[in-house]
Amino acid sequence: MIKFLFKGLIRDRSRSLFPVLVVISGVMLTVLFYNWMNGALSDIIWSNAKFNTGHVKIMSRAYAEDSEQIPNDLAYVGIKSLLENLNKDYPDLSWTPRIRFGGLLDIPDEHGETRNQGPIAGMAVDLFSESSIEHDILNLKSALVMGHLPEKPGEILVSDEFFQRLNIQLGETATLISSTMYGSTATANFTVVGTIRFGLSAMDRGAMLADISDIQIALNMEDASGEILGFFNDFLYRNEKAEEIVTLFNTKYQESEDEFSPVMKTLRDQSGLAELLDMYAYVSGIMLFIFIPAMSIVLWNAGLIGSLRRYGEIGVRLAMGEDKGHIYRSMLAESLMIGLIGSLLGTAIGLAISYYLQVKGINIASMMKNSSMLMSNVMRAQITPTSFVIGFIPGLIATFLGTCISGIGIYKRQTSQLSKELEA
Amino acid sequence: MNQLILTLIVLIGTSVNAQTPSGDWILRKVDENITSENKIIVAEMIIQGRRGTRTIKSKSWIHGTDKSFTEYLSPAREKGTKMLKLGDQLWTYSPSSDRIIKISGHMLRQSVMGSDLSYEDMMEDPELHNLYDAKVVAEETFLEHKCWLLELIAKASDITYYSRKIWVDKEHYIALKENRYARSGKLLKITEVTEIMRTQNRWVAKRAVFKNVLKKGNGTEFVLESVDFNTYIPEYIFSKASLRK
Questions:
Q1: How high is the pLDDT of residue B13?
Q2: Is A396 helix (H, G, I), strand (E, B) or coil?
Q3: Contact B99 A259 (CB under 8 A)
Q4: How far is CA B48 from CA A143, A243, B178, B212, in A?
Q5: Residues of chain A contacting B112 with CB distance shorter than 8 Å
Q6: Segments forming the whole domain that contains residue B228
Q7: Which residues of chain B approach chain A closer than 8 Å at the C-beta?
Q8: Residue B37 lies in a domain
Q9: Quick one: how many helices (H) and strands (E) in chain A?
Q10: Integer CA distances (angstroms), B147 to A68, A168, B222, in order
């Protein structure tokens, strides 16, 4: 029976080609849209995690209150012992201390006078220790534009844009002018050995990357850091697990009245990300909620039109004595076949385009020029297990339902009226 | 009879006004008390921050109102750091980087050595009568000293603090308390003198607490160890070359 119906569909293109094309288009758009939204959300989460929030972050309580201002004068002191305990107590996470700092990078001329100067957003990370995870997190090899990564103390990387703007040469000395943990003016000389581009406008305008030990010395922050970031070992953020860890950690210190005792926060609890992620989920949910039913209605309508167009054919089949139930069932089976073929092809095409966008992405740097959001300049799609099935909702179910409803008309046909209908 | 009462009121009013000098005159007296052609000051700055207290000792050579050179003597990390002010320009030298850096733009708003004082405060003309119009608004007692309360309004729009209130000791012509305000009226900084001393026929503040209201902490205390007025200072001190010496 199925083989018979399938042959019918293949041989009569008016019954198969157009409906299948409609289903393919609808399913492909659904898959693509879903993956695109997924990619944007993952990008926001990962960009913030790697440059700012980690999956969880530890700060001193006082620092956490004004963390957006990067108050290094309120940094946590005693990170060595804290890191030892963290590695022991939370083996599911990798921990890394960081110091973010602001200041000026001053490039001297041959007389030691200022030749060029510009504001920088500095980040000090563990570049040299063997257990460091920073090279993987920040993807430093890929981010390197010219020169080489720091190999010894005193070497730094600056963003390529900043490097070009200040007309710096590789190997030149640059003086960092910033503030120590105690508020004094700090000046320290570094050698610029390479340039980087992270692909985030907010970072690429004036980033400086240095080893944390150098910055600890420069800013008088021995055994201190502004932040300790924790990442799940597989680098995938799981909010529930993160909240569990945060509750466990903070319970230990809740009795302390010291404003410099540590406090842990999840990614969601920082930098207004909870609102952003909720808003994003809300908006994408609404969009998917509107898009999928809308696409379903289109496909449902296609099913309806297909069945109505076959009004005459059904009349002939009834006149020839075919059972109404049989005709109805055969139409449902046909719609399932069209829906299945369309969904499979639509999903395959949607996934193929999504994969291309996942690998290549679309460059939106021109739109992000003045943005301070930690969001990649290249927007990418992301394929998840749901991507493989999401298209079947409009593709298969809607087509089937459309035929179900339009097919009810079969039962309303009166055999006695058939001749008249066919003459008309 | 009515005319007699009216005459008495006018006379009494005239006599009170006659006893109260003008705000500008008081301000000039205050300025005269603190400025001299040359002076050398050794002082300590006790910074009471949220992490604890730090004491920074410095020696300053000051010529008039537009040249000054400061060398930090302790603690070890700050030792050898120098600052040079020439007119409206300021340079700092740090021995750790062996660089002379010009402090300009937004850096002027940064704190000096983590204190409640900003570079902008350092750069200010110490003779307030050049910057402000003053008027006496009240007479109050502050720390058992009878004071005139002066309200100062900036003469130009580029002055760091739009207005100030200063409590001037009637006897010694020294500002015992000072509030500095933004144009919006927001209080920004408070200075309170806690001890005064007489040296070389002048009354000067020996101890004062300077508080940036926008900053947490208990303020910065300045303790004057010694001051030599009108002493000889060689001209080379006020040169960029002396920063590296």
A1: 39
A2: helix
A3: no
A4: 43, 37, 19, 12
A5: 185
A6: 19-244
A7: 47, 49-51, 54, 77-78, 81, 92, 94, 96-102, 107, 110-115
A8: yes
A9: 17, 14
A10: 44, 58, 22
As a dihedral over the C-alpha atoms of residue A172, residue A177, residue A179, residue A180, rounded to 10 degrees, the angle is: 40
The C-alpha atoms of residue B229 and residue B226 are separated, in whole angstroms, by 10
Give B81→chain A minimum CA distance, Å.
10
Q: Are B92 and B82 in contact (CB under 8 A)?
A: yes
Short-list A407, A264, A366, A381, CA closest to A28:
A381
pLDDT score of A5? 62
Q: What is the DSSP letter of A258?
A: -
Q: Do residues B203 and B172 lie in contact, with contact meaning Cβ atoms separated by under 8 Å? A: yes
Distance between CA atoms of residues A67 and A263, nearest Å:
12
Closest-CA distance, B214 to chain A, in angstroms, reads 14
3-state secondary structure of A167: coil
The percent of residues in chain A predicted with pLDDT above 90, rounded, is 41
**B13 inside domain:** no
Q: Side chain identity at A340, as an amino acid letter?
A: L
CATH number at residue B232: 2.50.20.10
Read off the pLDDT of residues B193-214 as tens digits, 9 standing for 90 and up.
Answer: 999 999 988 889 999 999 999 8
Contacts of A144 (CB under 8 A, 6+ apart): A157, A194, A195, A196
Provide the ipTM: 0.73
Arithmetic mean of pLDDT over chain B: 87
Handedness of CA A51, A54, A60, A65 (dihedral sign): positive
- Asked if the Cβ–Cβ distance from A183 to B99 is below 8 Å, we say no
Residue B4 lies in a domain: no
B106 in any annotated domain: yes
Cβ–Cβ under 8 Å, residues A191 and A105? no
Say how many domains are in chain B: 1
Please state, in angstroms and as integers, the Cα–Cα distance from residue B93 to each residue in A116, A135, A177, B243, following that order: 17, 35, 11, 6
Q: What is the pTM of this model?
A: 0.74
Separation between Cα atoms, residue B58 and residue B74, nearest integer Å:
7
CB B217 within 8 A of CB B229: no
